[in-house]
Amino acid sequence: MTDIQVKAAVEIQRARTRRPLLSPLNRRRWSNFKANRRGYWSLWIFLVLFVLSLFAEFIANDKPIIASYKGEILLPVLVDYPEEKFGGFLAVADYRDPAIHDEIEAHGWLIWPPIRYSYRTVNNEIPEAAPAKPSWLYSKAVRCKRYPKGVDDPDCTIGNWNWLGTDDQARDVLARVIYGFRISVLFGLVLTFFSAVLGVSAGAVQGYFGGWTDLLFQRFIEIWSSIPVLYLILIMASVLPPGFFILLGLMLLFSWVAFVSVVRAEFLRARNLEYVNAARALGVSNRTIIYRHMLPNAMVSALTFLPFILNSSITTLTSLDFLGFGLPPGSPSLGELLKQGQSNLNAPWLGLSGFFTLSIMLSLLIFIGEATRDAFDPRKTFR
Prior knowledge:
This protein is mostly helical. Helix content is 61%, strand content 3%. The chain has 16 helices and 3 strands. It has helices at residues 3-16, 24-35, 37-54, 98-107, 140-143, 173-209, 211-225, 229-239, 244-255, 257-270, 274-281, 286-303, 306-323, 334-343, 348-375, 378-381; strands spanning 66-69, 72-74, 108-111.
């Protein structure tokens, strides 16, 4: 074989040899994570619940998922159709209106989500004044008495049940729990991500340069950490208009500090190691040393904190919503649901729904955090 043929054969062999997805070190870490069965299964349960909540509009909505009207396929869950399309006059069609519902049924069909309520839908057919008990606690006659045809009404079906009852504004509790779970987790994930970026960067700069840089940063962080965070957020939230991103920005001002001390300690330990001194001797820039050589090693300790920071972010959002300084009124919120439970002691399903949802969510995150800590524990990884 000629040299060209040999080189071609070597290249073909390299292309066929697939690089493993995980390095041997990360495979050992994943094995340690799976060894913690409670954390491993908590991760999968949490992922399933979170992915389902991302498609909340297809699970709980007052609009059909898909409909056919006069031969035209419609997607009401994605598109707001005007009511005049179905013979009405409103800007947006109300598919729960019997007239619109019967018009579409007469010229086509509808496929509804499993729960026919959104988080803001008011149920006018509840058998008693709001807050109403879960539908399965009523007899069929009582459950259907507000419908025009009583027990024979086609709309008195399981899809229109309020499985966890209604709140004091006749909104479905289960729908609000699903949407509230999604917004709580998304808020926590976004806040944790940006907190990690800021905190890790600040800790890396402090630990790598040391000296006056570290001293000034530490004094600033000590002063910043001494500020009563919750009180300051309450004051600022009462002045600024409520909103998701405003609340996110306010909490981000203080949440990044939790990562600084951990990353700073790792950089202080590693700044004089041989591989760092060798990189400096070769003329490698400080930025490259920090982000390419030292940061991957320092991130091991920071990663173990992520589930706990996420847990703290969700708890803080719930607390602010409970106090009335969180998301705008009407938003699906676990804190607001707990507040309603406190205000309506005669409706225990409100407080219990919010309590168990929050408890399960936070417990799963704690178990995932424990498994993550085991996965990155050097005593288990390098034994």
